[in-house]
Design goal:
alpha/beta; 6-stranded parallel β-sheet
Amino acid sequence: MAASWKYANPVEVTFGEDAVSAIRDKVAGRRYCLVTYNDHPYFDDMTQAIARDIGTPAVVVRDVEANPSFNGLRGACRTFGAATHTPEVIVAFGGGSVIDSAKVLAVSDGDFDRVQAILERHAGQEVRPATPIIAVPTTSGTGSEVTSWATVWDTDAKKKYSLNRPDLYPEHAIVDPKASLGVPRDLTLSTGLDALSHALESIWNVNANPVSANHAVFAAAEVIETLPQLVDRLDDVGLRGRMARASLLAGFAFSNTKTALAHSLSYYLTLHHGTVHGVACSFSLPAVMRGVIGQNAACDEALARIFGADLAAGADRLEAFLAGLGISTRPTDYGVTQENWLAAIDDALAGERGLNFIGTRDAVLAATA
């Protein structure tokens, strides 16, 4: 008997060079809030261009952090709530941190305390429906344009939260490879590795299904082939397009499965050692892959479509791929002691994302020894 499964994603996508021109049609005359980055000429120019094209926004929120935190989002929500006329739609123009921040604003009603209550106590979920979001990613990695959650950090308490509501799927995603042309090498690399992690993590996942696996296989293979070329040819629109598509499909994959162990481990490194997210969630992928080989037939089959039939050799290839990009796979190179790393594995396996992992503690420990 065939296994039962389900897959759903409600986000409408417009993809292609110059796709940003579709923002006007998707806003469709509604009052809008623009969320984007600050202190960068490109985003200054785009803020002005969007206003010229579709009219002055009701409010602009630009103080977006790389890892959106309680403290930073509190101010952003105040700005959002101070609009003279309540926005009917939010245009999120930027990377995953911008889109995640937009999702927080969408349910805040201008007051971050509402969001904090949802995150900490699961209280207040009955607040009004989220403000619709049009997501325009400028990086290729997070997939937030096609997921229903946002990552929020309580940096004071050293905790990571996930805001997760079905109405936080963006109404529309506009993916334009040209929008990422100004992204520097380090950010191109780290976001690309985030996309790879999303793809692989959705494969060794208790929630995997045939549709998510197909998206993930394509995305992972494409990142592995494209990213090493792109980091040396940042102005290549064709390569930017391939990475944008890979990131989008990885997003479609993990939008249904969520992530698993490597992401769960990454939160410790980001909170306690400041490791950038894309590196923190990808450096352990070879070890995690070795820990899942032989654990699940469907997982092995999907990984074989990426790495070939010899999965042990495939894990070695994955490690070499990371090394070629300058990414160490040794936890100690990120300031983590062996004792702390073993404790982090135990904590990660017990976490919400760790529980999605199909492997076992013993197999992971054997692979990381």
